[in-house]
Amino acid sequence: MNTPNKLTVLRLILTVVFTIVFYLEMAAGKTTFLISTIIFCVASFTDFLDGYLARRDNLVTDFGKFMDPLADKVLVAAAMIMLVEIGYMPGWMAILIISREYAITILRAIAASSGKVLAASKNGKLKTVTQMLGIIMLLLNIPYGIVVMFIATILTFYSGFEYIYLNRHLLSNM
């Protein structure tokens, strides 16, 4: 397993660690989740780093193309569910974002079944960065974090529509 793929697996492991630490901080009565935020930031940075290393060193693999976006989705979904649980984020927002992620994951699976790999678009990457920034702001109880998450929700749907529209031919063959 190459370094970028190891970083992707590390992000999945850090998601579990993030969740455990979040619950420990919540049990301690924290309203700002500093340690959880640090873990979330490290996990988020592995997303940038694994992609950078894979492209720089020509280590792009099918495993990485599939698992990297999946690991991102698992990390972001875990954080959003935790934020909903403590009342820092409305449930509808998490449901809409997670639903879009499922839809695009299914679209990627359809593409993969015909030998195609759907790479992340610029809008998809912007969506991910905005989601992560909003989550960090909410974890740290920074004002307007919910506004950033609202923007992330809009970008999430826009990029999802873009993926579906640009790859509609995959759906018409079903």
TrEMBL record:
Main location: membrane
GO MF assignments: CDP-diacylglycerol-glycerol-3-phosphate 3-phosphatidyltransferase activity
Membrane spanning residue stretches: 6-24, 74-98, 132-158
Organism superkingdom: Bacteria
Pathway(s) of this molecule: Phospholipid metabolism; phosphatidylglycerol biosynthesis; phosphatidylglycerol from CDP-diacylglycerol: step 1/2
Enzyme Commission number: 2.7.8.5
Pfam families in the record: CDP-OH_P_transf
Topological category with respect to the lipid bilayer: Multi-pass membrane protein
GO terms of biological process kind: phosphatidylglycerol biosynthetic process
Keyword annotations from UniProtKB, A to Z: Lipid biosynthesis, Lipid metabolism, Membrane, Phospholipid biosynthesis, Phospholipid metabolism, Transferase, Transmembrane, Transmembrane helix
Any single GO CC term annotated in Swiss-Prot or TrEMBL for this entry: membrane
Localization (cell): Membrane
Enzyme's top EC category: transferase
Recorded catalytic activity of this chain's protein: a CDP-1,2-diacyl-sn-glycerol + sn-glycerol 3-phosphate = a 1,2-diacyl-sn-glycero-3-phospho-(1'-sn-glycero-3'-phosphate) + CMP + H(+)
Job description of the protein: This protein catalyzes the committed step to the synthesis of the acidic phospholipids.
Family: Belongs to the CDP-alcohol phosphatidyltransferase class-I family.
Protein name as annotated: CDP-diacylglycerol--glycerol-3-phosphate 3-phosphatidyltransferase
Source species of the chain: Criibacterium bergeronii
